[in-house]
Design brief:
By secondary structure, this protein is an alpha+beta fold. It has one domain. Helix content is 35%, strand content 15%. Strands 1-2-3-4-5 form a five-stranded mixed beta sheet, with helices on one face. The relative contact order is 0.17.
Length: 158
């Protein structure tokens, strides 16, 4: 595992320990208005750099608050690009069946410029081994092989 991967997993574990309400959707002090404003601005910026409208969708009952989608007709690979924005630590993840190098560069540049921390999807697919009830073997959200993942914790419905 690279040093960058180790740092990213350490960040996820640190954010996992943040105090919060009686649920895992967002930490104490989460600023919904700020998050909405930043997501809208990211949607505008991606619309500019991809030269066409990108949608911004609000998510409820989840550990992420918005998804910004770039439609296939605007991408080199002619595939959807999804950007999920977590309720924790300005984390972002990019999802796409195929992602052309130039498309990746444009999305990553906008995320970085907006102050988001890009988390590689492969790290989020690792089994969750954090401190919340998601790590308990009790009925609840089960993903993949029957266990929650770091994706569940920071980017999915809970």
């Amino acid at each position: 595992m690279s040093e960058e991967d180790v740092r990213t997993l350490d960040l996820l574990r640190t954010l996992d320990r943040l105090p919060g309400p009686d649920h895992l959707e967002f930490p104490k002090g989460f600023d919904h208005e700020r998050a909405a404003s930043r997501a809208a601005r990211l949607g505008e910026r991606l619309s500019e750099v991809f030269d066409g409208p990108c949608s911004v969708d609000r998510t409820q009952d989840a550990s992420c608050y918005f998804t910004v989608d770039v439609p296939p007709r605007l991408t080199e690979a002619q595939e959807w690009i999804g950007v999920r924005l977590s309720n924790y630590g300005d984390l972002a993840v990019v999802t796409a069946p195929e992602l052309a190098v130039e498309d990746r560069r444009r999305v990553e540049a906008e995320l970085s410029g907006a102050g988001y921390v890009l988390v590689p999807e492969r790290l989020l697919r690792r089994p969750y081994d954090g401190v919340t009830w998601l790590n308990d073997e009790v009925p609840g959200p089960n993903y993949g092989l029957g266990r929650a993942t770091w994706w569940t914790r920071f980017f999915d419905y809970l």
